[in-house]
Structure formats: structure tokens, C-alpha cells
Amino acid sequence: MVGNQLIVSRHPGLSVVDIDHVSSYDFVPCRTHDGRSFRMFTMLDEFTRECLAIDVERRLNSENVLECLSDLFVRRGVPDHIIRSESGPEFTAKRVRDWLRRIEVKTLFIELGSSWENGYIESFNGKLRDELLNGEVFATLRSLFHDNVHYTV
């Protein structure tokens, strides 16, 4: 970040070489039956396309991102990169950037409006929406968890 402007790093030639080398993350917005919004934080490994995390809350912010990442890194280890995340405030918050820098994770942000640069996670989120979220009616967030414990994308 320079001043108040985020520097967007581009590495179009970055090849994914192994498990946990490159991860992507994003948010999926949705609504329960009563019209109340919620968001899903999704993260996947770009080599295996394995979903590493889904966190669901009415509101998700940079603290939720940090909590999910720290839990994941304890379980799986720290990846070399987190790439192709959007440059939203939850991902670019100073606390998130500083924490990732301290544990030596390189961050790369896509340009605003260029979701095609985040293709793996966008594809996963599209399947999640098509195969689960659009096909079910959720009265509450609890029903989303309870009814879909064994759901896999």
C-alpha cells in the first residue's frame, strides 16, 4: 500500500506447483428465507481445488478472515501465497496484511472488476451457489449448517 492506495500485484505467469502453494479466497453473498443477508467466506487450494474453509456469518469482516486463516494455517501449515483475492476491505485491512507479512505469506490482489483473474474460487463459488444455495430455502443460518453437514461440492 502506498499512502491510501493499494498496489495490485500481478503475477499472470505464477504456476501452481504443489498442494498448499497457492490458495484463493472470496466471499459469497446470500439471503435466508426471511430476506436477511449472510456471507460465506470460501477458501480453496488451487492445486487440488479442495475447499479449505467455508465460514458463514451474517457479517464477515477482517477479524473473521484472520480467525479463519489462523485456524487453517495451524491445521495445514502456511501456504507460499494467497493469490487472486479481491481487494475488498476485509482482505486488504492493515491488520490482515501485517499479520500475513509477519508469517511470510505473499499476497496478491486482483484488480477491481476482474473476477476472471480469480477463476478457481469464482468457479467454486458458482457451483456452491448453483448446487446448494439456489436449490434450497434456508429459514436460518442454523438450517444451512444442520441440513448440509454432508454436502460436498
Automatic annotation (TrEMBL):
Q: What is this protein called?
A: Integrase core domain protein
Q: Which domain of life is it from?
A: Bacteria
A single Gene Ontology MF term assigned here is: nucleic acid binding
Which organism was this protein described from? Gimesia alba
A GO biological process of this protein is: DNA integration
InterPro entries linked: Integrase_cat-core (IPR001584), RNaseH-like_sf (IPR012337), RNaseH_sf (IPR036397)
Q: Which residues form the Integrase catalytic domain?
A: 8-153
